[in-house]
Specification:
The chain has helices at residues 3-10, 17-22, 58-67, and strands spanning 28-36, 39-46, 51-55, 71-72. It is α+β, with helices and mostly antiparallel strands. The chain is globular.
């Protein structure tokens, strides 16, 4: 990666919830696994991190995303 690209990437301003909304808040989501009271739980989140659905398994969380017409993305 060139230095100019690296510099541009590192100099991006923080994004607000309004910025995320403009980038697809209503179109993009992600699923994150949690442990709730010792039990695995999968939560569907909107792009801004808002929890939209809590499910007992990953497949149910994916179905929730499909029902809400969200494209799932991978986050690290």
């Amino acid at each position: 990666m060139s230095n100019s690209v690296q510099t541009e990437k590192n100099s991006l301003p923080p994004m607000t919830q309004n910025d995320l909304r403009k980038l697809g808040l209503e179109e993009v989501g992600y699923i994150k696994k949690y442990n709730l009271k010792g039990k695995p739980t999968w939560v569907l989140h909107a792009a801004d991190g808002t929890a939209l659905a809590v499910q007992d398994n990953a497949e149910a969380a994916r179905q929730s995303a499909q029902h809400q017409e969200l494209n799932l993305v991978s986050v690290h």
